[in-house]
């Protein structure tokens, strides 16, 4: 990671960011990136919180607790600082997702009680134990007496003659006087050091007893601290899982807070990595540049090949694209218009930027490049940046070699940014559908690069102009131009014209494809309209058939009655309805259906899975149905036929309101009943009659059992006496 940040000039950025962390940690955050992004944005919208306390890593302390060890007081206080800050956050963050997160952090009462033992400096409060108060008071009295004794000695006339100064010096945690040689004539004491000027640091004998007393008090205090550290460590051992959890949550909030604080200070924004591999940057500025020209680029294809003028910003554009991907991957803020930008998610980012040749590894420039490229063929979904791809070998050979390798990497879903002066390589890849050309623009009037880029073209290197700009004598440049010759200039123009023509032809082809798709959409729309009209016709037909069957039913009832005239009238009406249903628009006979054809069954679309006689097994919306072939309509294009002419036929309705199951086995009867009910529902019937007879009752039982689980019924029951009674079932749909 550090090596990659160094290559992309992000070291200063990373150093600046780490200043906002309470303790050092990796830049990468484990877990759901979408949740991290959501909480960071919530934190951005809130008022500023107080900074996190700077605490050391507590991994070693947690390990000691897991082994029943005892912590030092400063380690205990570090946990106390973390818990106190989490209590502060629970009070400050009490709504939205941040509030929900804080609610899940439940701090045990015994841990909260321990937090109250400490003051802001990390010392145990005197209220915890009276002995702390007594020791503190005694130490103060000893200190005061020591200062008084020293002041008295300094003011003594005899001693003053040997003093180098009138200050009290602290040497090796002891208070001493700085004395000249011969001080032993006027003062008894111990020499504990010498100054650079040759004077002596002396602890007067009069302080010895006081120093001894102070040492005793400090030892007593240390013993008492040890006792409480042991007690607290015992409690902490019981709460080890909680301490590990709260330590991890503190780190997580630290990562959020540092990002938000850094973004506010530098006026930066966050970009959440998208699921696609598209990189679209709007006004991105590389962190290493003080006053950069913002970059706006749409890198939607797999390869971006940047050519053009030397010192025109090609390498910085490459570094900017890779830097934006890295910062987005780690949810780090950047200077960008986030609303209009999109950055894909990549498992790895590779930067092949430097010359790998050096004395230590005994490897050539080109060999080093090949070594780096060889590692890429085992990767997938990675972002790669290659600066000066032609470095270190013959241009023509390298062009063909790199073309093949880049196409292989394209097949492996790699995203590649390349800077090059290889016109040969650029021309070989220019017409590949996944390669985008970008040329650094040179202003010939001002004889300066503009640091802008032109899409879809190969740029010139402007080597001669660059050489002049950086101080090469004009006479040498003129001589080089002559050697270069006009032929190569013309060759460059021909290469560019060829690429322009290819791109223009591709654009024309894309426009024609778009028009063809529009025509196909129109044809599909017309087919749908035809199906809609046909459905309306089928609905009207079903309605008329239903009315006809109702009339027949009424007629049968009338026949059974004694009113003969009424019977004839109803029969005539039924016959009239029957004749009207026959006067329908004949339908054009379609080609036979086959397995695999796309069909329409009622309002549902599906595919034919099998055909047996006059029935077909179809799959609609994941459900398999067995239906009559006559009820299916083809969707999509009709198959090509060689037979001329049109055959017209009338469609005879196969639906009926009555089903007779006499003589069938139970399983056969249920199968036919299932098909009969499907047809009745498609025909729009709301009432049908099933004859099964009385007999042993097995057939009637099978029918009623099946109907009890059928989903589209309103009700069912015995038919009226004149329609079959117990030997028939009347079903309402």
Give structural notes.
This protein has 733 residues and is of the alpha+beta class. The protein is 48% helix and 16% strand. Helix 5 (73-92) packs across helix 7 (109-115) and helix 14 (395-411) packs parallel to helix 15. The protein is flat.
Q: What is this entry, summarized?
A:
The chain contains 20 helices and 24 strands. The protein is flat and about 150 Å long.
Strand content: 15-25%
Shape: flat
Largest sheet strand order: 9-10-11-7-12-13
Helix/sheet category:
alpha+beta
- The overall average pLDDT, rounded, is 82
Percent of residues in helices comes to 40-55%
Q: Quick one: how many beta strands?
A: 24
Largest sheet: 6 strands, mixed
Secondary-structure topology with pairs:
Elements: H1 2-7, H2 11-18, H3 33-45, H4 59-66, H5 73-92, H6 96-103, H7 109-115, H8 130-155, H9 157-160, E1 169-171, E2 174-179, E3 189-194, E4 200-204, H10 208-238, H11 240-266, E5 279-284, E6 295-299, E7 303-308, H12 314-329, E8 342-343, E9 348-352, H13 365-374, E10 382-386, H14 395-411, E11 415-419, H15 423-429, E12 435-443, E13 448-455, H16 463-469, H17 474-560, H18 564-582, E14 587-588, E15 598-601, E16 604-612, E17 615-620, E18 623-628, E19 632-634, E20 648-649, E21 658-660, H19 666-683, E22 687-691, H20 698-709, E23 715-718, E24 728-732
Parallel strand pairs: 7-11, 7-12, 9-10, 10-11, 21-22
Antiparallel strand pairs: 1-2, 2-4, 3-4, 5-6, 5-8, 12-13, 14-20, 15-16, 15-19, 16-17, 17-18, 22-24, 23-24
Helix pairs in contact: 3-11, 5-7, 5-11, 8-10, 14-15, 16-17, 17-18, 19-20
């Amino acid at each position: 990671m550090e090596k990659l940040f160094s290559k992309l000039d992000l070291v200063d950025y990373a150093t600046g960011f780490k200043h906002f962390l309470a303790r050092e940690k990796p830049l990468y955050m484990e877990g759901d990136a979408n949740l991290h992004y959501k909480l960071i944005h919530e934190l951005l919208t809130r008022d500023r919180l107080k900074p996190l306390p700077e605490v050391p890593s507590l991994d070693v302390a947690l390990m000691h607790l897991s082994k029943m060890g005892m912590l030092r007081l400063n380690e205990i206080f570090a946990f106390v600082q973390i818990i106190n800050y989490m209590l502060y956050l629970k009070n400050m963050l009490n709504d939205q997702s941040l509030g929900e997160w804080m609610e899940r952090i439940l701090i045990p009462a015994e841990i909260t009680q321990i937090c109250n033992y400490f003051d802001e400096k990390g010392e145990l409060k005197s209220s915890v134990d009276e002995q702390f108060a007594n020791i503190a008071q005694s130490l103060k009295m000893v200190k005061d007496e020591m200062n008084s004794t020293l002041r008295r000695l300094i003011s003594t006339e005899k001693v003053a003659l040997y003093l180098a100064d009138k200050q009290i010096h602290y040497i090796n945690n002891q208070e001493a006087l700085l004395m000249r040689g011969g001080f032993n004539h006027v003062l008894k004491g111990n020499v504990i050091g010498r100054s650079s000027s040759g004077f002596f640091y002396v602890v007067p004998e009069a302080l010895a007893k006081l120093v001894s007393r102070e040492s005793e008090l400090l030892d007593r205090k240390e013993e008492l601290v040890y006792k409480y550290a042991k007690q607290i460590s015992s409690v902490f051992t019981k709460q080890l899982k909680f301490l590990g959890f709260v330590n991890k949550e503190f780190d997580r909030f630290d990562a959020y807070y540092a990002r938000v604080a850094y973004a506010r200070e530098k006026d930066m924004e966050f970009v959440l990595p998208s699921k696609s591999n598209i990189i679209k940057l709007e006004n991105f500025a590389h962190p290493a540049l003080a006053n950069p020209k913002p970059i706006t680029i749409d890198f939607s294809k797999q390869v971006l090949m940047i050519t053009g003028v030397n010192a025109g910003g090609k390498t910085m554009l490459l570094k900017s694209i890779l830097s934006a991907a890295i910062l987005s991957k780690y949810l780090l803020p950047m200077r960008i218009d986030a609303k209009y930008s999109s950055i894909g998610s990549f498992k790895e980012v590779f930067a092949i930027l430097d010359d790998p040749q050096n004395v230590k590894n005994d490897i050539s420039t080109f060999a080093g490049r090949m070594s780096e490229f060889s590692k890429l063929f085992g990767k997938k979904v990675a972002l790669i940046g290659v600066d000066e791809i032609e470095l270190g070998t013959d241009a023509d050979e390298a062009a063909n070699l790199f073309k093949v390798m880049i196409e292989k990497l394209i097949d492996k879903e790699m995203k590649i940014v390349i800077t090059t002066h290889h016109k040969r390589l650029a021309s070989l890849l220019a017409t590949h559908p996944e390669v985008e050309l970008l040329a650094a623009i040179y202003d010939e009037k001002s004889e300066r690069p503009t640091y802008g880029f032109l899409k879809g073209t190969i740029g010139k290197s402007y080597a001669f102009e660059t050489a002049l700009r950086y101080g090469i004598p004009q006479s040498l440049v003129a001589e080089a131009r002559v050697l270069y010759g006009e032929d190569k200039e013309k060759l460059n123009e021909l290469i560019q014209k060829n690429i322009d023509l290819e791109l223009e032809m591709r654009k024309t082809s894309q426009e024609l494809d778009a028009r063809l798709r529009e025509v196909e959409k129109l044809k599909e729309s017309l087919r749908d309209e035809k199906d809609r009209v046909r459905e309306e016709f089928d609905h009207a037909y079903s309605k008329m058939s239903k009315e006809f069957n109702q009339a027949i039913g009424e007629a049968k009832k009338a026949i059974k009655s004694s009113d003969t005239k009424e019977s004839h009238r109803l029969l005539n009406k039924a016959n009239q309805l029957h004749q009207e249903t026959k006067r329908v628009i004949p339908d054009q006979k379609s080609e036979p259906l086959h397995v695999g054809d796309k069909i329409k069954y009622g309002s549902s679309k599906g595919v034919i899975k099998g055909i047996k006689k006059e029935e077909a097994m179809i799959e609609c919306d994941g459900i398999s149905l067995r239906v009559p072939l006559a009820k299916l309509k083809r969707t999509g294009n009709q198959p090509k036929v060689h037979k001329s002419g049109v055959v017209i036929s009338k469609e005879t309705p196969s639906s009926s309101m009555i089903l007779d199951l006499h003589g069938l086995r139970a399983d056969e009867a249920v199968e036919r009943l299932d098909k009969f009910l499907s047809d009745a529902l498609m025909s729009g019937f709301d009432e049908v009659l099933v004859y099964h007879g009385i007999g042993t009752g097995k057939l009637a039982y099978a029918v009623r059992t099946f109907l009890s689980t059928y989903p589209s019924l309103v009700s069912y029951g015995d038919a009226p006496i004149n329609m079959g009674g117990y030997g028939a079932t009347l079903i309402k749909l």
